[in-house]
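Example pasted here:
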Amino acid sequence: MKQLLIVDDNDKYARILDEYYAKLGYSIDRAVDGASGYQAVKDKGLEYYHVIVTDITMETQMAGITMLKKLYKDGYRGTVVVASTGFDVPLAKPLTRMFFGGMGIDYLVPKTTVISGDLEFYPMAFFGKPITDFREIETTHKIA
């Protein structure tokens, strides 16, 4: 079974993401902050989660980006999707891609698309078009 970790302090977003990925056959764990997300990966092993979906900022001591930096340093190599607040405002997409491009993040998801239930996954390639079906990403990244 495909394993996925959702790291988000917002129950509403986490529930929508859980429902979306459950329909795709994922077994899902949830962490409410970067520290507990990091610990979940360390406890289960760096190869356990095929995908991590995380919020960028959370109202805790360890945000999603800090968690990802630590996981990459430890050797995590799975697919990372970042749910981003404010990604929909003008110029935000190219600036966000530029800022996060070198951090190992594979896709950005505007939270407005999460709320609507019509998720759009923006690849980190500067002019990459959004993908609307995660199964296309699964094929590209050969997610088990």
In short: The helical segments are 11-23, 34-44, 64-74, 92-100, 111-116, 134-141. The mean pLDDT is 87.
